[in-house]
Design brief:
Layout lengths: L1 H20 L2 E5 L2 E4 H10 L8 H23 L6 H15 L6 H16 E11 L6 H19 L4 H6 L9 H4 L2 E5 L6 H9 L9 E3 L2 E12 L3 E10 L6 H19 L4 H8 L15 E2 L8 H9 L10 E3 L2 E11 L4 H14 L7 H11 L3 E2 L1 H4 L1 H6 L19 E5 L2 E4 H10 L9 H23 L1 H4 L1 H30 L1 H10 L5 E2 L2 E9 L2 H11 L6 H8 L7 E9 L14 E2 L3 E3 L2 E11 L2 E2 L6 H23 L2 E3 L1 H4 L5
Antiparallel strand pairs: 1-2, 1-21, 3-4, 3-6, 5-6, 7-8, 7-10, 9-10, 11-12, 12-13, 14-20, 15-16, 15-19, 17-19, 18-19
């Protein structure tokens, strides 16, 4: 009895010590949120954290709402929905990956990636496509074909001619580029391709190698130090591949007119907004994703060369042509390649996500075997499978129903992994297995199963070993449930509940009003002279805007732009405070443009109909649904805040 009391007392002391080390900041339905867990989330969501009472109270209110929604999702069984469980399992696999590799070998790969980031290689390739699970006969055909092309090159034929010639490369771009991929560096190609390009001597052709796309041979044509990372913007006048000669000439004329305006002092961003044909960038000043060293974004070589030739931030290029049309490029910011220490964390993340990290798993599994006292029993226990496997296996019709025993194939950490486990693996993993002698097939499949099983076992222990991993899994778990329940209870509900939306609109109709509007045609002119000419033309009511455009833009597409609409005067920058009258108004200048406005009708403020305000009404209705739903949840789920712990966060 005394020993039992001492044990209980010791246990209580341990619990008390742990509580002091990581006290509870909040409980929801009795489920604790510790100080460290809350602090991790708080810091993640606040780049400049404040620890005063007001800041902590404000964030706690947001956190309570978040936790209420997650608690409700769990209460309703969202965490048991197969689709969501599958999604979370996928994220867990991604999160676990960095913990399931050999750290020392992984470090070598990070250093290798840096060396390849600071040194670029230019290569050409020939591809013979092959499905990753191709049959041996198809694999042999592809191998013979790639070897045949390699021999032709070794006998003196030009690499590019072979690549783009009849029965040459299966890469469709080879027809135009002869297989030339330009310069690239780490992470811009799949790893086996990158490995071949960086290990093949310049001027020589590699041995055939296989990627998930098929067989390749690579010829390395140049190497250079990396040029750094470029942030650039562009103005583009697009031309399609099927554009006529006249269309191309008109595009060239337009880009030269834009360039002349740029040289005349026009703002680059204004010209982008007015004339660029690139929909992905024309609403953000023409800015493109960063490209160059350390990025996965690649531009066509001529575009990259022109961008990197610019010597100062803000400098812009002369018009240049690519396969996509004509461009003027503006350099926003050039950054030289960072040092290894500066890039190490970023490179580590990329290596962990890249297929190169698989190289370290075999050595990691070997270490786990030692750590968990692995014992191999497969020499005897695998005999049944070697004896009973038949040709039905390769078409997915084999099963292990005749297997009556369940002997251990190996043990790990005192736990047995048995014949029935392996039988299930075999039944589910027959695709892509090449026909061979039974002992060869079973040996390979056993090796694959054993590796996957050991890694899965280690993955199951990660939450107990690594608090940061556990916190990330919790974050993804809560995020998935939150998104799903918000979709059901708020977002989709607001869009599908047409009766509720209409009732909400009617109850709040006075909030949705049109301001002072004009039904008008707005002529935006490049010069005062053109504005005067437009004013004279539109004074004649028989002349429409299309005729005006045809006349004014005869010599230049940049002379005139026309907009026709019912404009909200206060919400339209170029109409605000202009005291417009019905008819043709006197021209005026704003931000270097000259405006002529012909007003058909002035419209007084009036209520909007639901179809005219639906976007805003739907958003407001969603907010209303969320507010009332949270009020219900606050009554349903009990929350307790430990204020002393909360206010000690910054200490």
């Amino acid at each position: 009895m005394k020993k039992k009391l001492l044990f209980v007392f010791g246990l209580l002391l341990t619990i008390g010590a742990n509580a002091q080390q990581d006290p509870v900041v909040m409980e929801i339905d009795g489920k604790p949120v510790t100080k460290s867990e809350f602090l991790q989330i708080y810091l993640k969501n606040n780049s400049a954290p404040q620890y005063d009472k007001a800041s902590l109270d404000e964030y706690m209110e947001l956190f309570k709402k978040f936790k209420l929604k997650v608690a409700e999702a769990e209460a309703l069984g969202y965490d048991t929905i197969p689709k969501l469980r599958k999604e979370l399992d996928g994220y867990k696999k991604q999160l676990a990956h960095p913990y399931l590799v050999d750290a020392a070998k992984n470090e070598e790969l990070v250093k290798q990636a840096y060396e390849r980031t600071v040194n670029e290689v230019r290569a050409s390739h020939i591809l013979i496509k092959l499905d990753p699970n191709a049959a041996p006969a198809d694999t042999l055909i592809a191998w013979d074909k790639i070897m045949g092309l390699k021999k032709r090159i070794e006998k003196g034929e030009d690499f590019a001619s072979v690549a783009k010639g009849r029965n040459g490369s299966d890469d469709p771009s080879a027809v135009s580029n002869g297989g030339d991929l330009g310069f690239f560096n780490a992470f811009q190609m799949v790893y086996p391709f990158e490995e071949a390009a960086y290990t093949t001597p310049m001027g020589t052709v590699s041995e055939p190698f296989r990627t998930r796309f098929g067989y390749h041979i690579v010829k390395v044509t140049d190497k250079r130090p990396a040029r750094g990372t470029m942030r650039a913007a562009h103005i583009m006048v697009a031309t399609s591949k099927s554009a006529s000669e006249e269309d191309v000439k008109n595009a060239e004329k337009k880009i030269n007119e834009i360039y002349a305006k740029l040289q005349g002092g026009a703002k680059f961003e204004d010209l982008v907004k007015d004339f660029s044909d690139d929909p992905s960038s024309n609403q953000k000043g023409g800015e493109l994703p960063a490209f160059g060293s350390g990025t996965t974004t690649r531009m066509v070589p001529s575009f990259e060369d022109a961008a990197f030739a610019l010597k100062a931030d803000g400098e812009y290029s002369k018009p240049l042509k690519t396969d996509y049309g004509y461009h003027i490029i503006k350099r926003i910011e050039w950054t030289k390649v960072k040092s290894f220490d500066e890039m190490k964390k970023e490179l580590q993340t990329k290596v962990n996500r890249d297929e190169r990290s698989k190289k370290t798993q075999d050595s990691f599994v070997a270490k786990l075997k030692t750590e968990y006292k692995y014992v191999d029993n497969s020499k005897k226990s695998a005999k049944w499978f070697i004896k009973n496997l038949d040709t039905t296996y390769y078409v997915g019709k084999w099963n292990a129903d005749k297997l009556k025993s369940n002997k251990a194939l190996f043990t790990l950490d005192g736990k047995s992994f048995d014949q029935q486990d392996f039988a299930t693996f075999l039944e589910n993993n027959y695709r892509g297995v090449r026909k061979d002698a039974n002992d060869v097939v079973i040996k390979q499949q056993l090796k694959t199963w054993e590796k996957e099983t050991i890694l899965a076992y280690e993955e199951s222990k990660l939450a107990g070993k690594y608090p940061e991993y556990k916190a990330l899994v919790t974050e993804y778990h809560d995020g998935i449930l939150l998104y799903e329940i918000m979709t059901d209870k708020v977002w989709n509900k607001a869009m599908k509940d047409t009766v509720g939306l209409k009732s909400f609109f009617e109850a709040n109709r006075s909030k949705y009003m049109w301001g002072n509007r004009v039904d008008a045609v707005v002529y935006e002119c490049s010069t005062q002279k053109i504005a005067d000419q437009v004013s004279k033309m539109i004074a004649n009511d028989t002349i429409n805007s299309k005729h005006v455009i045809d006349v004014i833009n005869k010599d230049s597409e940049l002379n005139l732009r026309v907009r026709t609409n019912k404009f909200d005067v206060e919400q339209t920058t170029f109409l605000k405070d202009k005291n417009l009258a019905v008819g043709v108004n006197k021209s005026y200048e704003m931000d270097g443009k000259f405006y002529v406005v012909k007003v058909k009708e002035k419209l007084a403020p009036m209520n909007k109909e639901l179809n005219e305000a639906k976007g805003t009404v739907t958003s407001d209705y969603q907010s209303y649904l969320e507010k009332t739903w949270l009020e219900e949840l606050a009554k349903k789920h009990k929350i307790t805040i430990n204020e002393a712990t909360l206010y000690s966060l910054g200490k």
